[in-house]
Design a protein that fits this description.
This protein is of the alpha/beta class. It is built from 10 helices and 8 strands. Strands 1-2-4-3-5-6-7-8 form an 8-stranded mixed β-sheet, sandwiched between helices. Strand 3, helix 1 and strand 4 form a beta-alpha-beta unit. Helix 3 packs across helix 8, helix 4 runs antiparallel to helix 5 and helix 4 runs antiparallel to helix 8.
């Protein structure tokens, strides 16, 4: 594990693998290096890229600040890109895709963007407020479940995960659900006309229509964006399927 220091002094933990052009992977909600799709994807991409995976603030081995603003997450990504030598490509998964888009708009030195199923822009503002209330009240388990239901997990699946081995880890990072929903809730499609870097939008053929539609909306909003749909599951495509598509676009 390595760390970089973000602009506000927060230490951000990361790992580096492979050799080649720099590529930073940005996790979505409830994910970090120890739990989520990016570590397996990094292993697939390491033959072509120097791949950076990191724990977003408040997760895993990264630190956090006493107060949150969306700009802090842009600064965290900027610190990783600068450490990688500047001009890195960035892959963002789900809300991490929105974070990558917004970071590019805020001047982070990103060369290319590859984005997997960004959620609908601007629709999470009320959810962010509700999750914040639950977290402040110490009801982290309820916050986790409210988020899971909001993103389309069936109620029976949500209740069935209450006793899972990873439930404690999800509750530990429940405050970061507020971060993700604040970022996506403040996003606006009309701003993406200012994205000036080559951009690829990817979705799974078996994801909910809401996510496939939002992927298409972003693809239309970003000038010159490319669009791919791949065989996959619910909000997921196997790394072995996704990695060659990303490499074909980013190299």
């Amino acid at each position: 594990m390595n760390t970089v220091t973000s602009r506000d002094g927060t230490r951000i933990a990361f790992e580096r693998a492979g050799e080649g052009p720099a590529l930073v992977l940005v996790d979505g909600a409830m994910c970090y290096r120890g739990a989520g799709p990016c570590s397996a994807l990094a292993a697939e991409l390491a033959g072509d890229f120097t791949v950076y995976t990191y724990d977003r603030r408040g997760r895993g081995e990264s630190g956090d600040s006493d107060t949150f603003a969306v700009e802090r997450e842009y600064e965290d990504l900027a610190a990783l890109v600068e450490h990688a030598g500047g001009g890195a490509s960035v892959f963002g998964h789900s809300s991490g895709a929105v974070l990558a888009l917004e970071a590019s708009l805020h001047g982070v030195d990103i060369a290319r963007l590859a984005l997997f199923e960004p959620p609908p822009a601007g629709e999470d503002a009320a959810l962010a407020e509700r999750l914040g209330e639950l977290v402040r009240a110490g009801r982290r388990g309820e916050a986790v479940e409210e988020f899971q239901l909001a993103v389309g997990l069936p109620p029976e699946m949500v209740s069935g995960m209450r006793g899972s081995p990873f439930r404690a880890a999800l509750e530990a990072i429940a405050p970061t659900l507020v971060y993700d929903t604040t970022i996506t809730g403040s996003a606006r499609l009309d701003r993406y006309a200012a994205i000036a870097v080559p951009t690829l939008l990817v979705d799974s053929e078996n994801s909910p229509e809401m996510l496939r539609a939002s992927t298409e909306e972003v693809a239309r909003a970003v000038p010159g964006a490319r669009r791919r749909s791949l065989p996959g599951g619910f909000h997921d495509v196997e790394p072995g399927t996704l990695a060659p598509v990303l490499a074909g676009f980013l190299l």
